[in-house]
Amino acid sequence: SAHPAPRGPAAMAPKTNRCEEPEAAASPKRARTGPGPESDAKASAGWVQIDSVSIRDYGSPSAASVAAFDMDSTLIKTKSGATFAKSKDDWEMWAPEVVPKLQELAAAGHKIVVISNQGGVAKGRTKLADIQQKIDAMQKAMGVPLLAMLMTCDDVFRKPLPASWKLMSSRFNGGVAVSVERSFYCGDAAGRVPPVVKKKDFSASDLKFALNVGVPFHTPEEFFLGKAQAYQKESFPFDPRTLGKSTEAFPVPPLDRQALVLCVGPPGSGKSFAATQHLAACTRVNQDILKTKDKCLKACKEALEAGKSVVVDNQNKTKADRAPYLALAKAQKVEAVAIFHDVPKELCFHLNAYRLLDTKSSLHRAEKVPSMVIHAFYKNFDEPKTNEGFASVHRVGLEHFTVSGDADLELLRSFID
After folding, report:
1. Distances from the Cα of 389 to the Cαs of 189, 299, 394, 395, in angstroms?
2. Residue 371 sits in which domain range?
3. What predicted TM-score, i.e. pTM, was given to this entire model?
4. Same domain, residue pair 85 and 218
5. CA torsion, points 127, 129, 134, 135, in degrees to nearest 10?
């Protein structure tokens, strides 16, 4: 392609084989026409594939002001009333106001962009050609020039991550700089709950996408029907934009004498980072590496007998999980210290997703921890207390979060889920 390569997350190719369409593998570097085999070529005329994003430009202008929209439940809805379309023809305009409003935007010179997650393609639930044909028909019915972008898998291009916006502005806007102040994003996923809406929004991914990009946000009810805002723009249990910006120092326990340190916390809470960065003088014992608890206890015993301090980098979720380590510390006549990672569940889900996506970081993981494992920790854990046998318990909260030196800060501080 003659277009300049995007920087940041937009430049990151999805992991090979993880997010390809079932029909055929896309080249991670090169744009190609059509989603797969020749039988789809006719249906896909005019569409190009860049990494996991399927794109078609229906003559959209290059403009500083971008009017961007989600598709399903924003521009269109199912004709059948079902949550998901039953066929490529199962759609109608979301409301009578949609087409005149879009035509008004087009007449005023805005670039209209449709940005839609279509992860069902990579999962084999929907055919890319069917969605492309639906958008071809939708654009024809709207009668406006627009750019359509479909994110076909769960990678760095998926909303709410901002990579699709960067791809649009850097490669599909004719070199014209996009003004975030004059642009906006409209979508139905705003985290609304009854009675504001009849049915709870499935997520807040559209609102988070707008926050990641830095553009004003509207729901379709606001934008097309003129209704009042019915959601909170900043009311999230966890906001990644603040990560690592606190001045609170990590509470490293004083290790002036030999000790057995137990990390206590869910997956994705920062235990391994703490163990390797803040407790580097200790011998690290980790069950993901050693595979069994017996091997972990044996490694602890050997290190303690050699006069070394040890940090056990496991979940150590319950009193029963911790008891054998406390018994070992007592037998070896060394202090047992707990570092309790008391962080919101949302941080764990965020870091779990981040570690998968940041392929260049030392924190990268090839697979996500299953969500149920994170939920199970919060459901069943026992908070560590000194009456278990710990000499001291040190609480680590979100305010102590430390950023790895090789982390992709932009990705880390973006809403991911």
Report:
1. 48, 21, 14, 16
2. 259-413
3. 0.83
4. yes
5. 120
